[in-house]
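note to self: dont lose this again. the chain is below, predicted strucutre after it. 956 aa total, dont forget to put it in the shared folder this time
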Amino acid sequence: MTSQPLRLWVDGQCLQTHSRKRGIGRYVLDLLRALSVHESGIELLVSLNAAMPEATIAARSLLSGIVPSDRIYVWHGKVEGGEADYGRTTWRGRSELALVHHVNELGPDVALSASPFEGAADAAVPYLGGSLAAVRTAAIFYDAIPFRFPDKYMRDIRQREYYYRRLSSYKSFDLAFTISDFSSRELRHFTNSINDLHIGAGISDEFVKLINDDKDQIKSHRNYILYVGGFDWRKNIAVVPAAFCAISKSFQESLRFVIAGDIGPREETELANIWASYGLPADQIMFAGAVDDKTLVRLYKGALALVQPSFMEGFGLTALEAIACGTPAIAARAGALPEVVGDDALLFDPASPLDLAEKIEAVAAGKLDARKLKELAQDRIDTFSWRNVADHVVQGLHGLDRRMAAPQVDLLEALGTIKRDDEEDVSTLMALAEPEPTRPRLLVDASATLIDDHRTGIQRVVRRICESMFPSGSKDESKYISFCDDHTGWYFAREWTARPPSKRQENRLRPQAGDTVLMLDSSWPFHTLHPAFLRPVLLKGGDVISCLYDTVPLRSAAFCHEGMPPAFSAWFQTALAYSTGFVCISQAVADELLDLLAGIRFPRRMKIGYWQLGADFAAMEPPPKPIRRGKDAARPCFLMVGTLEPRKGHRVALEAFEALWAEGVDAELVIVGKIGWGISHLVQRIRSHAEFGKRLHLHEKVGDSELGALYEACDALIASSFAEGFGLPIVEAGHFGKPVLASDIPVFREVGKGAAAAHFFEVGSPTALATEVKRFLKSAPAESRETLWPTWSESAAQLQDVVVGQKWYEVYEPQSPRPFALPTDLGDTRIAAVLKGQQRAHRLELVEGPHGTDDGNALKIVVSVTNLSGTVWSSFGPTDRYLGIALGYHAVDIAGERFQYDNARSHIPFVLAPGDTHYMALNIPASLKERGGAFVDIELLQEGVGWFGSPLRVAL
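---
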């Protein structure tokens, strides 16, 4: 072996096409994994075809743990469609040359065409080497099934031409790896070549580990025959119901047939009809669908036997997996299956249902030697290991003479005559084939703040972070402020000016290899514009990090503007689809996100981090003359700071102090904050309160220095929010050495560590807050101390450490990964079936209301909804609201009779995961009371199915 690691380039397009869902995709991925850890130190390079963008992103995600990101490349093919449909068009030929040019530029030691038959019906253009190639080329040969069954697979001239051209390419490869002795014989038969090397196939270490880890199967429950695979003609699955029909009644009645695999509804119906045509009961056939490996192991172990009835297989992985699980594999005596199964007693004639029926009966009667099955399982695991496969591949590659002559023709000669109209496109095609150098950049989105800075909390964060990262006069070309507000694209600035960059061509931002995009701003209205830029960033191997400030619009929709939850949910789903990571403003928000990803069984890995926001204390030095308080300055004073809006819990604090005043507790409540939305009823209640201006104060406009004076003068801060992403007033109170009385939410527990002392009470409970205030007044005063908190400059440095320095809090790994999940696959976010029984388990509790809305036209009622089932709830079914879960109400008169049954709904913005609680609101028309409404019965329902029952009755 050479001292230098062998650089092996691999064509990864089979991980992008339909092959990714078949044995070929799995084979290539397992081979790459085995080669990546081989002791010889193979240096892997993989290229993907950007003409299939969503599949490229999915394949990159799956390869991320196997091949370093900077060694995964993209090139750009250009074809009209599949070769079997359109033939070998001019652009397909040019794209083949572009790929060869791409590989020549990378300059590996050997190129591996992992699946030369790709591109029959899609945009794939596999590497076929040829006269332009400057490196030795190996290829993998799986089978020649279309040539054995031409009437089924080569029905027209274009299909035949496609298959024969691809098969003939094996003659020009320097080495052909075959996956079985059978496939070696097939290759030699059809090509008369002798350049083949049998490397075999394997069962992955991860799969063997799942086999060993799974100890839960009870073998007495083995009452089904299992099939794993697709519904292609050659799979011969229709022989199984014919065989079932021939099984003796004593066995037939107790056996079921379970099918696992990516089989569509049409195929399911077709097979169910075949099953019924033999007079077999409908409940004896079951479709498990596409399953993850953990579930697959359970299915194998629970089966009486696997049946593999194919007319031909190049290998037979499902038979190998079943045997490794200790389950008999009843396989057709065809193709490579006999060499995989290794036991003639389990083989049958694929054209004979009676032969298959006899084998099933023999297994069901317990005629197989259990000890022999166990020995066979270990023998197959030892024989068919990916380590052995990798050893054979490495030996074959090192056996190649890598001294390659110069290409027989140059690129221009190979391209031939080009029409004038095509010149620019051909030039672009070849330019895009050249590997792009990696130049790390950080692109920080500040679009919404630059368009209109409303001085909201999020925009303050964006402004302060950007001021720190991009100071005036900055010339740092490793990071840029990014901006996009329309379809013209993205633009950049090098320094913070608080103005959008001009949309000149020289300010145009284009994705490049090495980009990290930080979506820092609340640019939610523009989320439909984002994929056009983020997709090529991901294609080139860049990172897209979305900033999550809180999950309030998803979990506490009742406390948001009506249009915010659906808009935020749409942005969040786009962010999930196109992000490689999220950075949050607190650990609590990061934990909420991790719980949500696990709850929906998000199918891809996701980096999760958080950082501390900065704080501006310098401007908060109190003036010489403090702001005026009540007449009795010695009276204990409690301060609330923040915009008055429903989720801040000002109503909870007011009702707590009303109870305290009624008990004779002489304490003052000072509320500081501008008047927000949905709160007019409470503001009116405060201003008309008997204690207003005495022991109850409201300051709408307070400058920084005046706010500092209020912090200095108060005895404690009250933070009574129902939900938050951070909690800046708690940090500010800590700066002034003041204790905090806070609602018991995770983020307040986290931020409260910086306060002089922190006391917590039940969320939304005036009684609990009043009790905590009395306890606080009786306790010894906390020692005043100033707590340390990062400046905005330090906060910006923390953020960069996470996003650029990769200092992540946690990396989410799916428990049940779905290989090659497309970006649009977000997990279990829609309801696909009618919920019954325990799937409807829930709890409804009144939080507040009814109270008048700002416009006076409705009464608002807020309830908490807790999902006590094990099912993810959503307000969307497979395509629309049908089957979705919603909150509704019935109008009830004073006699308790319902007189208006079906009313407006409140919807779940995204999902309500098992064990989670959401705050949801219903707006009841004020006119309902005028028409005799005395109560409303609030209840959950499933659209198109029915109401859940057990309503919550609320008096109007």
